[in-house]
Amino acid sequence: MQTGAVRERAATLSREPGVYQFLDGDRVLYVGKAVDLRDRVRSYADPRSERVREMVRRAASIDVAVTDTETQALLLEANLIKRHQPRYNVRLKDDKSYPLVQLTDHPFPRIEITRDPDPGATAYGPYTDKGQLETVRKAIREVARLRGCSDHKFQNRDRPCLDHDMGLCAAPCTGEIDAAAYADRVELATRFFDGETGALAEPLREEMETAADEQAFERAAHLRDRLDVVQAFHGTGGDAVIDTGGSRIVDVLGVAVEGDGATVARLHSEGGKLVDRDRHRVQTPARGDGVPAILAAFVAQFYAERELPDTLLLPEPPESDDLRAWLEAEGVELRVPGAGRESRLIDLAMKNAHQGPDRDGAARALGDTLGIDPPRRIEGFDVSHADGREVVGSDVVFVDGQPAKTDYRRKKLPERNDDYANMEALLTWRAERALAGRDERPDPDLLVIDGGRGQLDAAQAAIEAAGWSVPVVSLAKAEEIVHTPDRQFDWDHDATHLHLLQRVRDEAHRFAVQYHQTLRDDVSTVLESVEGIGPARRKRLFRRFGSVEGIRAASEAELLAVPGIGAETAAQLRRRL
Is the peptide bond before 126 cis (omega within 30 degrees of 0)? Predict the structure, then answer.
């Protein structure tokens, strides 16, 4: 990205906390968190080091997610880094950069701050302010009197240590408290870190009032300061919990409708923690009205091949009795919150939906240069074959600069060693399906052809003959020259709109080659099953007959004319093929 594009993208962002990602296509280069998304992203227009400058230069787009608090952003950042392992991230790859608090897996659990939780421990965080976390840990120890000592100090004691004398530990090491009573104290700490501020704040307040009544004003002031930290802990960044109903997996959906399309944002939590989020651009249904119809269509399609959550929070009831019945049968609790904490989660999902997919300068620059509206939906085409054999065509789709893989299509084409004719056949197939209404996908804003002027002319001839009116360009490899029907462009190698076309072109090529290799593998598998047909004889067969169709059509005499093919082998070939 150029620095101007970074500034343009930053200007569209809110000043709320959140997470940002620098992307190169669907590859994540860097993940970061921000207290103010606009300011933080804008800072990358003036890179602080050569490493950051290189990362910005390689990036093609910036994606963001809004959160309620800095700690939610931190936790989401940690999970995204762990999931994607971005090349330019250094911190958090080993999950040790930010502090957590853990309750160890002992008969008498120990509470401590750590960056590397023990196996089996119950850990909370990460947190941004270690000083604040230390104050909270001390407050818990004063109220619940949980142990903080090592196993070495805990074992083989015959009298309590100094922590007991100071009122910081109940001394389970010497039997001053039994396991059941100690478990109740651990439960108080658990309730607090799960989000119940009053579990710790109320005992502190009572102790503070008692100290004031006894005119122990210094002690009361100390408790007052500690109470302030405890009460602020969840409200100003400590609260990263998203689940309120005890469910293991919760998804929260928000919808933003824009013209004939909509953006659906999904917040995903596991074990009560926000761990992922994504956004999806969808077409508004032809039938139905507004958000309920969009939600019904999205939920049915999105979760058809994905694991369903335990709980699904929606801003409005979906417009489908069948969908609600299906979710109920699958054990999914569907809720439409009206107020309270769950309602605030819906608000957060709605904020992310209104952020929309990334629309930085790439699409706008591309549209301005080509003299068309910024293309939000782009389809890329390529053809792959081996000397005219196993000819296939690919049709990939990018929406708002990101691959929309559910809309990918592929086509087996007639076998001929003519790239121009193959491309014309592929575009004829696409155009005729669109005009006949046999393709359920919306028409694209731009077609991108992998190839040079010849491939472009073939594609243009096909869509003009069909009467399909869609702008088309081609992009050849190596030279990276962009051809249109009436001119050509040689853009700077770091132009964001060139990067967008390159991503579409490269993905179309990858998808075509993958399909071609699949077909060749299928053929090889059939031939390998015939006794007496090894690699050398397979090559001879393909050299003589060109394809599996040619081998299938060959007569027995023609097969026997191939060196190494005897009567028994020829008979097996004819039976198998």
Answer: yes
- Per residue in 216-228, is it b (16+ CB within 10 Å) or e — as a string? eeeebeebeebbe
The pairing of strands 249-258 and 311-313 is parallel
Query: For the purposes of burial, counting CB atoms within 10 Å of the CB of 409, is it exposed (0-12), middle (13-18) or buried (19 or more)?
Result: middle
Which bin fits 404, alpha (ψ -120 to 50), beta or left (φ > 0)?
beta
Instruction: Please indicate whether residue 447 or residue 551 has the higher confidence score (pLDDT).
Output: 447
Token pair for 511: 């998808």
Q: How far is CA 221 from CA 131, 198, 228, 448, 465, in A?
A: 19, 19, 11, 70, 85
> Could you tell me if residue 437 is left (phi over 0), alpha (psi between -120 and 50 degrees) or otherwise beta?
left
**What SS3 class is residue 355?**
helix
What span, in angstroms and rounded, lies between the C-alpha atoms of 19 and 11? 16
The answer to whether the beta carbons of residues 28 and 80 sit under 8 Å apart is yes
215 CB neighbour count, 10 Å cutoff: 8
The pTM is what?
0.40
15-29, 54-68, 121-135, 425-439, range with the lowest pLDDT: 121-135
Per-residue burial over 496-530, b = 16 or more CB atoms within 10 Å of its CB, e = otherwise: bbbbbbbbbbbbbbebbeebbeebbeebeeebeeb
Q: Residue 55 has what pLDDT?
A: 92
pLDDT class of 245 with cuts at 50, 70, 90? very low
Judged against a pLDDT cut of 90, whether residue 193 lies above it is answered with no
Secondary structure of 230-288 as H, E, C letters: HHHHHHHHHCCECCCCCCCEEEEEEEEEECCEEEEEEEEEECCEEEEEEEEEEECCCCC
- Alpha-carbon distance of 299 to 282, in angstroms, equals 11
**pLDDT tens by residue, 289-324:** 578 888 888 898 888 778 889 899 998 888 788 888
